[in-house]
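Trying the structure run again after the queue cleared.
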Amino acid sequence: MGRPYRIYDIKTSRKEIIEENASKYLFFAWTLNRLKEFLLCTDAKRINEGYIRKSIHKTELLKEIKEPERLVDKWLVDMEFIGLIKIEYLPDIGQTVIYLTEKGMEEYKKQTYHVLAANLLEAQESRRLSKIAIIIAIVSVFVAICIGIISCIINS
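Done. Tokens:
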């Protein structure tokens, strides 16, 4: 399962941390959604971990992540640590299964991780738009100066 926790380098930018947290909370929300849908559609009390792994790779969620398997491992461990899910290896069937806990169902109902992910994505989009606005402002100032210089030359 690799190293479950990332040690942040002091040089790690806030942008990278925000992007990773946005991806993590999207994963939490996505996993809670899948568990709830699967468990409510069937009478099962658990879901195969492999199902979650295969399903997550079919989405766009991990598209831009460098080491998706390591992060999926880490995030599943994080979800278990927080108490959202319970991961258990069942030797009789030779598979690892995931149970949705009561806390996980409560957090799903409150949409906690959905809101956190949405807020972080909104912050990323705001940051991107502010950069575009600054570039447009700089170009506008440059154009205004050029027009002023040209009009001075023409009027002379």
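The mean pLDDT is 81. Worth checking whether this holds up in the mutant runs.
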